[in-house]
């Protein structure tokens, strides 16, 4: 059985019908978020979701947006180069254009855009199943997707700003043109079979390149998904299922997409050092090696002789050795993304866990695929259809597209079992594979008996897929699709009154100080920092972009609060390195610390950080902050948060000076009851007296001026 390339043209009209229907269903499902008050919309999302949305909310297309100093103070960087937030800037531009014509709500424009893109991605699953099978299998794929649309199982669209909600739809949209390219692999004398003219092939390649480029720009992990895509294509090429010409075309298109995405992201280090770059470099190096050892291109379909098997083994070994060497070279220069491989190595027992892997393990999304999700899957009929499809594939003539979808699904499923969050990429592929059980094309290749009239055979072969389709749709009523739509109308909603109180306090107490006291930077955990970045104009020191080495070090400092370091001065000095003015701690840090936190703390490399099992709270650093009012002063508290301002050291406050043509100098000055931190950067010596007088430090200004004058005039050479 071969794929009819015209299936794309025959199903594209159905695609434009399916897409609006799915969009309407998603809008109905999450209708509640559109009517929430503005102050609630700002803080309903958790950690990275709130962080990414903050760039959209605060986007003004000013220079201050591009050069971001709010997320990782005192460091500044080009925002869209460091984070995958180009999408937020594009949607912000769309919002400004629409609002110029007609007044609309900023949040609603963002939510509608994400839901529309996700609908396009789901509709692409229908298109893929229809191309490989037929329209019935396409409908079956959508039905299976809906049965798995529960408990954040097959989709994380309930948290709109998550990167996979934007990137994955374009990854799915890249599959139809990819399948069209690789389908023309059989060498046959029938010119009508799988005949793609040059212009169509160019169109498919351009569509593939656009989708891959957008996917790379919007999600860091998309480079891993696209790498698995290329590895499957290369492996099938080594098996001679995909021709060398088609394989080269796909690799070239992917390389063009990577170059385009790199240019648009100003050559982001995370993209330059990604696995995708290593795979592309390995492929081209391997091609050079093949020419040197005189392995000729072979377009014979499948392995059918000893020479072909020998070529396959040589190519596979060459590629494997090359990718190891390339990876070793890259590891000397790029370390930001190493946690991904660390997690895999730890899970398969090749590496001991460290702080980075343990902090990911604290989130259920980065653990092994949980049992309750397996139960949710088996409550649907998708596993039964998947088994039928696999059996049918054994007894039908297979095309390169079938091999690709099978291997791609196996690869993504293995990744899903290791990291639960990757289920959003694997389960849709499983739906596509399972939908083949309802394909009339597949059933037409199965004999039903020589004594049945032809008309009855056609009716039976149509009735069987329809019965299987109804069997696939049964769980829609059992798991309660209608209940899922009408009962849960918000998706993820992490709004709390305590978070709203904290936001209000920051806006009324801290933000108004920025004009006089430079940047009142706040040191907190990743979720709290993300909320404050979205709902306030505060300057933060920590963000959830944990791949960055500088952020990793700051997170270690935060979790040291639960350690047994007995000197609060250690934390005070650490926070001064980041020019922090306020420290915000979640009160759950005061609760009983479980084994997961204990393991995390004991993996810290700070001196005296390790604690005995079930160590008392009184012996932990956090408790010492509450009892040491000279270093840390508690200025705000509610049910979920504690806010400290950095206090005094023996009645003096540390002042960091960075004067022109001088060494860095730290002084301790008298402070008022508020303990306000003052930083001067690049101010001339003669200006200190006036500056300090303006803010009320008259006596200190005279002493400081005389001291500095004597210091710089009489310091040792």
Name the features.
717 residues; mainly alpha; Rossmann fold; 3 domains; four-stranded mixed beta sheet; disordered C terminus
Describe the structure.
The C terminus is likely disordered. It contains 33 helices and nine strands. It has three domains: 416 residues, no CATH class; 134 residues, Rossmann fold; 63 residues, no CATH class. It has a four-stranded mixed sheet, with helices on both faces. The protein has a three-stranded mixed sheet with strand order 8-7-9, with no helix packed on it. Strands 1-2 form a two-stranded antiparallel sheet. It is globular and about 90 Å long.
Question: What order do the strands of the largest sheet run in, or round the barrel if closed?
Answer: 3-4-6-5
Structural class: mainly alpha
Uncertain stretches: 185-196, 649-655, 657-686, 691-702, 711-717
Major sheet: 4 strands, mixed
Cα end-to-end separation: 87 Å
Total of DSSP H or I helical runs spanning 4+ residues: 33
Strand content: 5-15%
Instruction: List the domain count as a whole number.
Output: 3
Q: Please state the average pLDDT score.
A: 79
Radius of gyration: 30 Å
Overall shape: it is globular
- The residue fraction in helices comes out at 55-70%
Could you give the count of β-strands? 9
GO molecular function: mannosyltransferase activity
Family: Belongs to the dpy-19 family.
Keywords: Glycosyltransferase, Membrane, Transferase, Transmembrane, Transmembrane helix
Membrane topology: Multi-pass membrane protein
């Amino acid at each position: 059985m071969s794929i009819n390339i015209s299936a794309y043209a025959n199903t594209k009209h159905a695609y434009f019908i399916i897409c609006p229907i799915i969009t309407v269903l998603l809008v109905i499902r999450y209708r509640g978020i559109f009517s929430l008050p503005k102050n609630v919309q700002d803080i309903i999302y958790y950690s990275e979701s709130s962080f990414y949305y903050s760039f959209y909310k605060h986007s003004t297309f000013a220079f201050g947006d591009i050069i971001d100093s709010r997320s990782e103070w005192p460091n500044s960087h080009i925002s869209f180069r460091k984070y995958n937030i180009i999408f937020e800037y594009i949607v912000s531009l769309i919002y400004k254009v629409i609002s110029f014509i007609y007044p609309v709500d900023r949040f609603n424009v963002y939510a509608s855009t994400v839901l529309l893109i996700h609908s396009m991605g789901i509709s692409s699953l229908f298109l893929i199943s229809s191309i490989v099978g037929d329209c019935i299998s396409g409908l079956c794929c959508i039905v299976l997707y809906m049965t798995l649309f529960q408990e954040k199982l097959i989709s994380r669209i309930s948290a709109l700003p998550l990167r996979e909600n934007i990137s994955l739809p374009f990854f799915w949209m890249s599959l139809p043109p990819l399948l069209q390219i690789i389908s023309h692999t059989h060498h046959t004398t029938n010119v009508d079979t799988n005949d793609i003219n040059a212009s169509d092939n160019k169109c498919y390649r351009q569509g593939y390149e656009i989708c891959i480029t957008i996917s790379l720009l919007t999600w860091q992990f998309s480079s891993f998904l696209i790498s698995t895509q290329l590895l499957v294509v290369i492996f099938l090429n080594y098996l001679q299922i995909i021709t060398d010409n088609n394989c080269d075309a796909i690799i070239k298109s992917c390389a063009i997409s990577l170059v385009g995405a790199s240019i648009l992201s100003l050559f982001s280090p995370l993209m330059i050092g990604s696995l995708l770059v290593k795979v592309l470099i390995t492929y081209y190096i391997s091609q050079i090696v093949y020419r040197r050892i005189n392995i000729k291109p072979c377009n014979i379909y499948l392995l059918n002789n000893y020479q072909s098997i020998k070529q396959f083994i040589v190519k596979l070994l060459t590629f494997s050795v090359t990718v190891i060497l390339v990876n070793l070279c890259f590891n000397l220069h790029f370390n930001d993304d190493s946690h991904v491989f660390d997690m895999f190595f730890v899970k398969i027992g090749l590496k001991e866990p460290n702080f980075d892997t343990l902090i990911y393990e604290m989130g259920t999304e980065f653990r092994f695929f949980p049992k309750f999700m397996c139960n949710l899957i088996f409550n649907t009929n998708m596993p039964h259809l998947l088994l039928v499809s696999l059996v049918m594939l054994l007894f039908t003539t297979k095309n390169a597209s079938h091999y690709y979808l099978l291997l791609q699904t196996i690869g993504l499923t293995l990744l899903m079992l290791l990291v639960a969050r990757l289920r959003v990429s694997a389960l849709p592929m499983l739906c596509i594979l399972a939908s083949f059980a309802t394909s009339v094309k597949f059933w037409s290749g199965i004999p039903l008996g020589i004594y049945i009239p032809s008309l009855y055979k056609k009716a039976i072969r149509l009735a069987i897929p329809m019965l299987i389709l109804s069997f696939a749709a049964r769980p829609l009523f059992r798991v309660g699709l209608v209940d899922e739509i009408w009962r849960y109308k918000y998706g993820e909603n992490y709004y709390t009154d305590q978070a709203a109180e904290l936001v209000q306090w920051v806006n009324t107490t801290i933000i108004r100080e920025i004009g006089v006291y430079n940047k009142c930077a706040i040191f907190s955990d990743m979720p709290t920092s993300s909320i404050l970045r979205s709902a306030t104009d505060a300057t933060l020191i920590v963000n959830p972009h944990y791949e960055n080495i500088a952020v990793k070090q700051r997170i270690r400092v935060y979790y040291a609060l639960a350690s047994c370091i007995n000197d609060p001065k250690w934390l005070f000095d650490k926070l001064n390195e980041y020019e922090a003015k306020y420290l915000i701690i979640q009160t759950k840090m005061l609760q009983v610390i479980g084994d997961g936190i204990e393991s995390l703390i004991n993996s810290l490399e700070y001196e005296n950080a390790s604690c005995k099992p079930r160590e008392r709270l009184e012996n932990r650093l956090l408790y010492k902050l509450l009892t040491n009012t000279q270093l840390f002063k508690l200025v705000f508290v509610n049910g979920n948060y504690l806010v400290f301002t950095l206090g005094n050291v023996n009645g003096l406050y540390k002042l960091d000076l960075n004067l022109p043509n001088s060494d860095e100098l730290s002084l301790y000055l008298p402070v008022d009851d508020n303990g306000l931190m003052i930083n001067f950067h690049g101010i001339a010596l003669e200006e200190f007296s006036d500056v300090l007088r303006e803010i009320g430090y008259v006596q200190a200004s005279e002493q400081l001026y005389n001291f500095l004058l004597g210091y710089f005039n009489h310091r040792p050479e």
